[in-house]
Amino acid sequence: MTELLIRNACVIDPINGIRGETMDILIRDARIVESVSGRAEVIDAAGCLTLPGGIDSHTHICGTKVNFGRYMMPEDMRAGRTARQGGMHATSGYSVPTTFGNSYRYSAMGYTTVLEGAMAPLEARHTHEEFSATPLQDTMANTLFDGNWAVMEAVKENDVKRAAAIVGWTLSAVKGFAIKLTNPGGTEAWGWGKNVECIHDPVPHFEVSPIEIVTALVRANELLHLPHSVHLHCNRLGVPGNAWCTVDTFRHIPDLNPERQSLYATHVQFHAYGGSSWKDICSRADLVARAVNDRPQIVMDMGQVMFGKTTTMTADGPMEFNLYRLHHNKWSNHDVELETGSGIIPVYYSRKSTVNCVMWAVGLELALLTRSPWQCLLATDNPNGAPFVKYPEIIGLLMSRKYRDAELATLHPEAERRIALPAIDRELDWNEIAVMTRAGQAKALGLLPLGKGHLGPGAAADLAIYPVRIGEIDPSAEYRRVIEGFRQTLYTVKRGRVVSREGRVVVEGDNSTIWVKPRISEEYDMGRDPEFAKKFARYYTVRMGNYPVQEAYIRRSICIETEAEL
Amino acid sequence: MRVLLVAKPRKKPNIPIEAERILPRTFLEGDEFTVFEGNKERRLTDLFSVSIEGEARDVSEVEVILRGDVSRVKRIGEYMDGGCILIEGSVGMHCGNFMSGGTIEIGGNADHWLARELQGGTVICHGDAAHYLASGYRGEKHGMRGGTVIVHGNAGDFAAEYLAGGSVTIHGSAGDMAGVEMKGGELVIGGDCYRPCGNMTGGTCTVHGTAHNLLPTFRKIRTAPLTAGGPPYAVFEGDIANRGKGTLFIRNYRYMD
Predict the structure, then answer these.
(1) Tens digit of pLDDT for each residue in B21-49?
(2) Residues in Cβ contact with B9 at an 8 Å cutoff, skipping those fewer than 6 apart
(3) pTM score, two decimals?
(4) Cβ contacts (< 8 Å) between B137 and chain A: which residues?
C-alpha cells in the first residue's frame, strides 16, 4: 500500500466545481481517497496550482506515420537532444522526438494521458509497440476507418448495423479506442489520384459520399456504446473557403448521446478558412464557432498553429501532396491497402507569410469565440500545428489580450485585415484553461468513468502541481509567468506516484493502454462472417488470423467492454 | 599568436577524438579545455603537447598548427570564424563544419564531411578528400552556402551535395553523385566523375574530364569552348526532372547504359 498526502494544494477541478480552493489531496494505491494513515508520504504544494493530470485528446506521437517522420527528418533529430540523466534515456528530436522524448516532455508539462490521433488498423502493432516505450502516459489510439472498404460497402447498402459490426470487430482486433475519420472518402479517392471536394462528392467505385460515411459511423458508434464519439478530421483540410464545408458537416450530425458529444471535430483551425484562393484567404472562425455554439453534439479542438519549424503528418494523403507542391521539399506518401493512406512533409510556419498568420489567428479565434470551453479543447494536432511543447504559450495567448496584441504587432501587416482576433477582448480564466486541457478532454473522450480528468474521491491519482500561485499572478499582464509556470510542473503524479519533479523524470514509468471491446452477438460477429472473411482473404496482404494485435503487445491493458446493440 | 599542437602517441590510436573546440577563437582564452576521446573526457594537454608563442589581440592573429597523427581527430575548426589552422598531415572527419571565416589548410588527406555546410572562409586540402566533401548533413536542404573549398587530389562520393553557394574546386576526380541536389554556387571537377548533379535546381558545374553515366534528365543546349580558342564543352541544362535551372559544362560525357 502506497500513500501520498499533498498538502495545501490550490485545486482547480472543474468537474467537481472546485475553483481555486486550498485543500489537501489524499492518495492511496493510485486512487484519490478521503483519508490516509499517518505513514503517508507528504508533499507540500504550498498553495501551488494543482490540476488533474493533463490529457491530450489529439496528438501524433506513436505509430508508423510518426516513425516515418523520424526517418525523414534526421535534421529534426539533431534539433532537440538531451543526454542520459539518472533513469532518463537520452532523447532526440524536436517536432518528431523519440518516444521517450515525447513521454518525458509531456510529463514535465503535467500530462498523464494522451490519445494518438490516427492509427491505421493494419499497422496497429507498431503503434502499440511504441506505446509501450511511452512509459509516463496512459495511451489510446484512434483507429482509422475513413477509407475502409468493408465499411464503405456497408454504408452503400445503408446497413448501419453491419458497419457497426465491422468497426466493433476491428477495434477489438487492433486494440483501438475510437473511430477516426480522416478526410472520409478522400484517402480512398487518393488511391486513384483524386480527392473529394466536399461532403457530397462520391468516392470512386464505392459511390458513397463522405457525409454518408460520417453519419453512418456516428450512428454505428452509438450502437456500439463506445466511450468516445466519432473523431473527425473534416474534408477539405487547409483549403481556402473550407469553413462552409465544415459547417455543412456539423449540420448533418444528430444529437444522439446525452452524456457527451456525438462528434469530435479535430484540429478545426485547419477547417475554418474563408476566401476562394491563397490570395484572399481569411478567417471564418466566427462561422464555425457559431455552428458549434448552437450544437451541443459537437466538440472540437483548436489545432492551433504556432510559428516555427515543425512536421506535418496526417492520414490525409491528397492534402499532403498539395502541401508538397507548395513547399517543394521532401515528401512521403503511403497507402495502407484497404484502409487509409498518409503523407508527411516538414513545414516552417512564418510570421512573414499572410497565410500562416491567418492560420495562427484562426485557432485562437475558435477558442475565444466558442462560448463553452467544454466544446473547444486545447491542442495543436501535435506536431502538425506546432510541437506540444508550445502549449504553455497558447495558454498565455488565451489568457492575455496584451500578449496577443504584442504578437499581432509582429505579424505580416496584410494579415490584420483578414482576421477577427484584434477585435476580441475575451481572456480565459484559470478554470477555463483547466477545462480546455484536462476536464473537457476527459469528458469528450468518455474517460470520466475511469476516474480521469478530476480529483474527487475515487478518481485516478493523476495530477499536476504547477509552480503558479493563481492569487498572485494577473495572467492578463504577467503572461510570461503563466507560460513559465505551465512549462514545467513542480510534481507530476501518475497512478499515485511522483513521476516527474521539476522537469526531471524520476521513475521508469509503466503506462496503460486503454482500448475498447464491444460485445457483439454471434449474428454480427465479423470473425465468423463468411462474406467478410472471403473479402479479407481476397484483398488483404495479411491473413485474418494474423491481423489482430495480441494482448502481449500491451503493457498494462485497460479494456473497456461495452454492450453493443447488435 | 602561434599555437603548436603535437599529437602524443596513444595506446589505442583508433579511438576517435571529438575536438570541436580546437579552433583559433578557443586559444584566445588559453589551452585549459577538454575534448572527448571516445566516451572519456580528456584535457587537451593529455592528448597534445601544446606550445603557445606570442600574443593575439583578436582571432585573426591566431595560427593553430597541428602536427603528428590527427587522422582520428574529428571536428577540428567547427564553427571557426577567423584565424588559421594548418594541419601538417591527414585529418579526421568533419573538419571545418559550419565554418564562417578564416583558413584551414591540410597537407595530407581529409576524411569524410570536410567543410560540411561551410558558410564562409577557405578550406584547402593538398591530398584527397573522402566522401561528402562540402556537402549538407543528413536531412539538410541547404549544404554549403558560401566560402571556398579547394582539393588538390581526388574527392569521394557525394562531393558538394546540396551546394547552395560558394565555390568548390576539385583538381582530381570526384566519385559518384557529385553536386547532386545543387541549388547554387559553383562546382569544378578537374578530372572525371560519375552521375553528376542529379536533381540540381541551380548553380553551375564544370567537368574538365569525363562525366560517366550522365543522367538522361539533362538537356543539351549547345557545344562551345569555355574560353576563346579552348577545347569544346557540351553545355547542359537541368535537372529537368526537377524543373531545374542548373548548368553543366562537360568536356566529355557518356550517358548511362
Answers:
(1) 999 999 999 889 999 999 999 999 999 99
(2) none
(3) 0.91
(4) 74-75, 78
